[in-house]
Amino acid sequence: MITFKHYTVAVHDLEQAVPDYEARFGMTPTGEKAFNNIGKFDFVPVGFNGQTMCHLIQPREEEDSPIAKLMLERVNPFNPHGEGIYLLAYDCDDVDAFCAQVEANGGRVNRMPGGGNAWVHPTASNFVLMEIFPKS
């Protein structure tokens, strides 16, 4: 069984996005600002009643980070900073079986050696990056 965990939004100004989400949507931080070394981004989890629904992420200065690259590709007159949905995250009872299903049906999955998480390549999911977490 797979269940929704959270979504992730790439923003150009994390310090402004957090209060904007609080004022506009009533979402409050559910954890402290942190840094993800793999993706090279800062993030703040936000949600309702202490339950995380969204991670707001801002790439560090490195233009070679996946998020910075994606944001540059999205820049247009209506979205001058390339902000938007970056990832949908799910919890899964059997990550291996889920990955096998995706791959057996023509999709591509990336996994870190020895890691429990999997990432469904955007070309397999209508250009939405999906991260699959083992249920704890």
Short overview:
The protein is α+β, with helices and mostly antiparallel strands and 136 residues long. 23% of the residues lie in helices and 38% in strands.
CATH topology: 2,3-Dihydroxybiphenyl 1,2-Dioxygenase, domain 1
Rg of Cα set: 15 Å
Biggest beta sheet summary: 9 strands, mixed
Large-scale geometry:
globular
Indicate how many domains the architecture comprises: 1
**End-to-end CA span:** 13 Å
On the 0-100 scale, what is the average pLDDT? 94
- Ranges where pLDDT stays below 50 over 5 or more residues in a row are none
- Beta fraction: 35-45%
Secondary structure: number of strands: 9
Structure description:
The protein has 136 residues and is an alpha+beta fold. The chain has helices at 14-25, 66-74, 95-104; strands spanning 2-10, 28-29, 34-36, 41-48, 51-59, 84-92, 109-111, 118-120, 129-134. The longest helix has 12 residues, at 14-25. A hairpin with an 8-residue loop joins strand 8 and strand 9 (129-134). 23% of the residues lie in helices and 38% in strands. It has a single domain, classed as 2,3-Dihydroxybiphenyl 1,2-Dioxygenase, domain 1, CATH 3.10.180.10.
